[in-house]
Design brief:
The complex is a heterodimer of chains A (304) and B (354). By secondary structure, chain A is mainly α. Chain A is built from twelve helices and no strands. Chain A has a single domain, classed as Orthogonal Bundle (MetI-like fold). In chain A, helix 2 crosses helix 12, helix 5 crosses helix 7 and helix 9 packs antiparallel against helix 12. The radius of gyration of chain B is 32 Å and the shape is flat. Chain A: It is a multi-pass membrane protein.
């Protein structure tokens, strides 16, 4: 008996793998250090950029005028004024873009998941969505420029900017929606069909609501990404220091455009406004990202 | 189906079993009838409802729209570029000249733009690739389980910072910090063409060196995200097998994770390269315009395709001048198209591992 009790303890002591040879230990330690180092290196610019933006922009946006006034009537070197007009422009251009992109993006994803299967068109569409993801924003802007301004002879406007942003937003929405629709269990669809419900109604009333939290998250993230785009506003809109409600005509400001514009302003006021606009944009984008997280948490289907 | 019928009958009205049976009988006889005609019909012709047809049409149409859209981008850019290319007085591909101020005497070539674009992108890629590999390994293999998600979120945050903010940071903050380092490189390693004194004032920081670092930071999240996804799919059996053989952590990674994820990592880097080639506003803000052409030094200034177009965009007044920039945009489009297509085909070729 006593030997039996002692046996497991003896067997449990690993006889061979006790020690790892020194070179292997060194290599392992080195690799661990490098991998941790890589992560820390990546965190440096993030912290540094955010620190710069907050340190230089925060005092500017503390002023209540910043959120309530435009630059109307101010000289470039005069301090003060606000970014109201640019915030309005950024939000409106993003909103118009979302109104156009969301239905297109979701329908493409529905096609890919529910109808396309392995057809050639589905493969081509997937490939083109991938390509569209990689299209540089300046090329998207040039495309809208040739169509909207050269061929249709229309002027630069906020709406043209929104159209260019659509090209950048649609692929992101397709990607995320596609992923979400794929996760929806087939049993749900089958149960719906078994009740005699048409396919389209199944998709609209069963599949999409199930995937809704993920889809909305994707939309918010896409919107956040699109709002910071600068190339389209440079090509397709002119800066206005005042608020312009007309989407189809005349210059309209947006936060990126305001920054580009103020960069040519060598005075202290210009410097302040650059970083004020920068922090406003970062805050706006962070808000949308946070909203995405909140939505995905709140609407996520309860699995357990 | 039966229950409501039974329930409707007033209770205690002396409804005997027989009476119920009578009441149920017509119903029971009704019930089997509908399936009888339908049953043989279903395999023959499934009835397609108009709602289905419309919805299917909309979805398919959206798919077609995307395909057509890419074609349209290429087509419209070509159509708009051709007239200007015809008016070009120098060779478009081999000239380093870029002068579109006089639309009646257009002189534009993309050699300089191509070189600067490629060098900025390659510098960015060389910096970002090893770091992204490290982060992806860190997040999938090394980071403490409960911290991996927040850490991954931090790296993703880099992607949320707008590129114009990175540009301003690169110009106003990073550039001045890099200046002594750049100066040291020029003084001590200047005999290597890569570190030779460039064609812009280093003190201003607007060099390919600064731009490359900033673009590297910007493409880091995409490379990390894609590699991470691939590394996460390493079969647990492989990892466990390696551990069972007594491998150290690094040996596990080297023998299982890296061979498995190699293709994914390469394609992730290609995606990063695609982004780097097309990065616009950050480069446009940072890179100083140079008067002389690019001379293979990291401390040169100049323009990439994207930054050239972005800086000139507000002055697109003449269709002929604008056409020159659109021709440059077309080249950029083709360049990123090819790089992205290669990246995707690598991923597609390795689908079987997933």
């Amino acid at each position: 008996m006593s030997t039996n009790l002692a046996d497991p303890t003896r067997l449990a002591t690993p006889p061979t793998f006790q020690s790892v040879s020194l070179p292997r230990q060194i290599k392992n330690g080195l690799a661990t250090a490098l991998v941790w180092g890589a992560f820390l290196i990546a965190v440096i610019p993030l912290v540094w950029v955010l620190y710069t933006v907050i340190q230089r922009g925060f005092p500017v946006v503390l002023d209540g005028d910043w959120w309530q006034k435009s630059m109307s009537g101010l000289l470039a070197r005069q301090q003060g004024g606000g970014a109201y007009h640019a915030i309005y422009g950024t939000l409106v251009q993003g909103l118009i873009c979302a109104v156009i992109s969301v239905p297109i993006g979701i329908m493409v994803a529905i096609y890919l998941v529910e109808y396309g299967g392995r057809s050639k068109l589905a493969k081509a569409t997937t490939f083109m969505v991938d390509i569209l993801t990689g299209v540089p924003s300046i090329v998207a802007a040039l495309f809208i420029y040739t169509v909207w301004i050269t061929y249709f002879g229309l002027g630069r406007s906020a709406f043209a900017v929104s159209l260019a942003l659509v090209l950048l937003m649609v692929p992101v929405i397709v990607r995320t929606t596609e992923e979400m629709l794929k996760i929806v269990p087939d049993e749900l669809r089958e149960a719906s069909y078994a009740l005699g419900i048409p396919k389209w109604k199944t998709i609209v009333k069963i599949v999409i609501p199930t995937a809704l939290s993920g889809i909305l998250t994707g939309i918010m993230l896409a919107l956040a990404r699109v709002m910071g785009e600068t190339a389209p506003v440079l090509v397709l809109a002119a800066y206005a220091p005042f608020i312009n409600y007309n989407l189809f005509d005349g210059p309209m400001a947006s936060l990126p455009l305001m920054m580009v514009n103020e960069r040519n302003n060598p005075t202290q006021a210009g410097f302040e406004r650059i970083w004020g606009a920068a922090i406003t944009l970062v805050v706006l984008i962070t808000l949308f990202n946070l909203l995405a997280t909140v939505i995905s948490r709140a609407l996520a289907p309860k699995t357990k | 189906m039966n229950d409501p019928v039974v329930a409707k009958r007033p209770a205690g009205s002396g409804a005997s079993g027989a009476e119920r049976g009578v009441a149920a009988a017509p119903h029971a006889s009704e019930a089997p009838i509908p399936p009888t005609p339908e049953a043989p019909e279903t395999p023959k012709a499934p009835h397609v409802r108009p709602g289905d047809r419309i919805f299917r049409g909309l979805a398919t149409g959206s798919g077609v729209f995307i395909v057509v859209l890419i074609g349209a981008i290429g087509l419209f850019l070509i159509l708009q570029a051709i007239p200007s290319l015809g008016l070009d007085n120098v060779n478009f591909l081999t000239s380093r000249e870029w002068n579109t101020t006089d639309p009646s005497n257009l002189r534009f070539g993309i050699l300089d733009l191509t070189l600067v674009t490629v060098v900025v992108a390659v510098v960015a890629l060389l910096i970002a690739m090893p770091i992204a590999l490290g982060i992806a390994l860190f997040l999938t293999q090394y980071a403490p389980r409960n911290l991996a998600r927040p850490f991954a979120y931090m790296v993703d945050l880099l992607a949320a910072v707008p590129s114009i903010v990175f540009g301003l940071w690169g110009l106003f903050v990073l550039g001045p910090v890099l200046f002594p380092f750049s100066e040291w490189l020029i003084a001590n390693l200047g005999w290597i063409p890569l570190f030779a004194k460039g064609n812009v004032n280093v003190q201003l920081g607007g060099t390919i060196f600064t731009a490359g670092i900033v673009v590297a930071v910007m493409i880091l999240p995409i490379i990390t995200a894609v590699s991470r996804e691939v590394f996460e799919r390493t079969p647990t059996m492989h990892i466990e097998g390696a551990i069972a053989l007594g491998a150290t952590k690094w040996e596990v990674v080297r023998t299982t994770v890296l061979p498995f994820g190699k293709a994914g990592y390469v394609s992730a880097s290609m995606l990063g390269l695609g982004r780097a080639l097309g990065e616009t506003i950050a480069v446009a803000i940072i890179l100083s315009t140079a008067t002389s052409s690019f001379g293979w030094s990291l401390f040169d200034g100049g323009s990439t395709f994207a930054s050239k177009i972005a800086l000139a965009a507000p002055e697109f007044n003449d269709a002929r001048s604008a056409g020159a920039y659109i021709a440059a945009g077309l080249v950029l489009f083709v360049l990123t198209f090819v790089v992205n297509a290669i990246a995707r085909s690598i991923v597609a070729g390795h689908k079987e591992y997933e």
